[in-house]
Write a structure and sequence with these properties.
It contains ten helices and seven strands. The protein is α/β, with parallel strands linked by helices. The protein has a seven-stranded parallel sheet, sandwiched between helices. Helix 3 runs parallel beside helix 4 and helix 4 runs parallel beside helix 8. The longest helix has 26 residues. It is globular. It starts with a strand and ends in a 22-residue tail after the last strand. About 3% of the residues have low confidence.
Length: 294
């Protein structure tokens, strides 16, 4: 049985990924990580209502990626549940993410980049050291950000030998600048920069992590332009429906994650597009274009 922890799985792409794994891969057991326990229970019940047999392959764990204590408590809970198994997990899917500037621009960085690291710091010890996988759900906003950012930043975040300390230093410098950015009138630019920067750093962290754990398969991917709570405000702001904006469904946004979890991706430390093909870190690659080979 391949046990897979999915953060942020109470709605959107995370919930759709849990459903599709249970539906298509009978050897999977899904641990649904949810910051809000009540919403997690509702999501859990919604899956069981679709197929009562999934109850034997599904569990819920309260997990707030922004809180070190919450992440630690969740890992202890899972270790206790599977007591006696030194490596109870097959994979970690870091799906939780936000782009809501109302909560604070710094929070975007704390959840999207540091949240991914918090989970890996604690849960890697529960991962099967021989066949384990880590999938970090990032965004095409990362490469788009790097395509237009400072050359020195781009060089660091695309370096195959990047160190966490270098990423952390950039994050801290950026967090200091957020107060100044908040004074800027071009709010959309501020939000886009914070979100894209956080995802570019998450991609760089993926490179670093893969190098530190060469026996594991560790990759990142974009789900594509998907209708979620994160993107729906864009459609509203433009007076269009999500479909008119070109957004796909959460189900369609699970392809790359599931491929990296259950398929045969070549290598580790790579970034994949929503079409399950390798993509560059520093520029946008459209689905259907030739895969990146650099």
């Amino acid at each position: 049985m391949k046990r897979i922890l999915i953060t942020g799985s109470n709605k959107g792409i995370g919930l759709a990924t849990a459903k599709n794994l249970l539906q298509s891969y009978k050897e999977t057991f899904v641990l649904m990580g949810s910051r809000d326990l009540k919403k997690g229970e509702e999501a859990f019940d919604s899956l069981i209502s679709k197929n009562p047999e999934w109850k034997n392959r599904l569990d819920l764990v309260q997990l707030d990626v922004e809180s070190e204590k919450s992440v630690s408590d969740a890992s202890l809970e899972i270790a206790k549940k599977f007591y006696g198994e030194p490596s109870p997990l097959y994979s970690i899917l870091n799906n939780a993410g936000i782009a809501n500037h109302v909560l604070g621009l710094n929070k975007i960085v704390q959840v999207n980049t540091y949240g991914t690291k918090r989970v890996c710091d604690v849960f890697l010890k529960l991962l099967d050291p021989n066949i384990g996988r880590v999938v970090n759900v990032t965004s095409a906003s990362g490469p788009v950000y790097l395509a237009n950012c400072n050359q020195d930043v781009r060089k660091i975040l695309t370096n195959p030998n990047v160190k966490w300390k270098e990423i952390d230093n950039l994050l801290k410098e950026y967090q200091e600048r957020l107060l100044e950015l908040d004074k800027d009138n071009s709010e959309n630019s501020i939000i886009g920069n914070a979100y894209g920067f956080s995802k570019a750093c998450a991609n760089a962290y993926t490179i670093y992590l893969a190098r530190e754990y060469p026996k594991l398969k560790i990759n990142s991917c974009t789900p594509g332009f998907i209708e979620t709570d994160l993107t729906r405000p864009l459609a509203i702001a433009n007076g269009k429906t999500p479909a008119e904006m070109g957004m796909k469904t959460p189900d369609q946004g699970t392809s790359a994650s599931i491929f990296l979890l259950m398929g045969n991706p070549l290598g580790s430390g790579h970034y994949y597009g929503s079409d399950c093909k390798r993509s560059p870190l520093d520029r946008y690659r459209s689905p259907g274009d030739p895969p990146y080979s650099g």
